[in-house]
Description:
two-stranded antiparallel sheet; signal; Lysozyme-like_dom_sf; SLT_4
Amino acid sequence: MNQxxxxxxVFLSTLIVxxxxxxxxxxxxxxxxSSNLCEIFFEKEDWYDxxxxxxxxWGVPIHVPMAMMYQESSFRHDALPxxxxxxxGLVPWxxxxxxxxxxxxxxxxxxxxxxxxxxxxxxxxxxxxAIDFMGWFIYKSQKVNGVSKWDAYAQYLxxxxxxxxxxxxxxxxxxxxxxxxxxxxxxxxxYATQLKTCEEELQKGWLMKLFx
Length: 212
């Protein structure tokens, strides 16, 4: 009995030491299979909790911001936009925009989010903050432009063009963008179908999963 107790103490001590490292590793690497929402969330369970919190806070279905995030960054925490070039495309000169992180949020819009939500410690390379930002943006798109939170196509156009650009229908001059928005819509529908098959399991607490 004493020997078994010692083994448990060693196991728990090791877990305490390694747990922060494991979490950090999961937080900074993209999912292995980004085409399946269930596999994404089973690999990164804290992502499901963050996405569910954003859903409950902003009334946004999980599959919509997740499909938009895939399109924006492929779930890379440090994603950056392409470089800009000058002198006939020969010399790199900064980036084409200030977008950064999981959500590819631009600096001015991110600052608006921080001001409106009082989330001063938010970081664009933190998944929980990024998914909350996207929930906020989708919520605002519904308020400003009357776009359904479930309409991934129109929501992505708002996200890409901004609320004013969407009102002006700037996307009508960008056939390529409409094709991208259609891809986002198709992915969101796949994600929604997949999530229905695994969300009950994802909603179980870690202790329940341990004994199930």
